[in-house]
Amino acid sequence: MSNILVVDDDKAILDLINNILNKSGHYVKRISRPDEVLQENLNYYDLIILDIMMPGIDGFELCSDIRGKVDCPILFLTAKSDEGDIIKGLGLGADDYLIKPFGVQELRARVDAHLRREQRKKVNSFNIGSVRFLISGKECFIGENKVPFTKSEYEISEFLALHHGQVFSKEQILEGVFGFEKESSLSSIVEHIKNIRAKFLQLGEEPIKTVWGVGYKWD
């Protein structure tokens, strides 16, 4: 059982998510007023789901505040399918997004995939070139410099590094890293890759290459 926090000003949505995730054996804490979230012990939760359009404090602002306090996956639940909004949310540290209206099975699959990633027991580390991965702590270093990855950025980098030289499409990265395939999520892979490259480049490295018309590889 995992502890999940869901924040949405629509109580019907809160009840729906509660019913869906309760059936999967999870405990769900529902909050309809975003200003109450920061009063919670956020480290208690294994995963957080945030609506974007809420009165007072919107989901973007809330995500920014939360990400500095917790390391668990954050999923946006939103009626806003504009790519710019999605990119903004991922840039603030969210791991994924789900567009309303959503299907029961899709919600379960997204939540379960992220929780599986968190529960994996990893104790080893590895180096590839000048890049060092500490898998147990989900940390990446270049020399003594830690690359400031979000969880999703780290997971994508680790996946490509472990399969260095092999080319993966956006669909294969989505399936291999997150455990599900959804057309609307492919833009998130593109944005994550862009952010990963920018962070590596700041430290003088460019390990991820684009194979035009195919996908990406760790070179």
TrEMBL record:
The modification 4-aspartylphosphate is found at residue 51. SMART domains: REC, Trans_reg_C. Keywords: DNA-binding, Phosphoprotein, Transcription, Transcription regulation. Residues 123-219 form the OmpR/PhoB-type domain. Residues 123-219 bind DNA. One of its GO terms (biological process) is regulation of DNA-templated transcription. The keyword Heme does not apply. One of its GO terms (molecular function) is phosphorelay response regulator activity. Gene3D superfamilies: 3.40.50.2300, 6.10.250.690, Winged helix-like DNA-binding domain superfamily/Winged helix DNA-binding domain (1.10.10.10). Signal peptide: none annotated. PANTHER family: REGULATOR OF RPOS (PTHR48111), RESPONSE REGULATOR SAER (PTHR48111:SF2). This is Response regulator transcription factor. It comes from Acidilutibacter cellobiosedens.
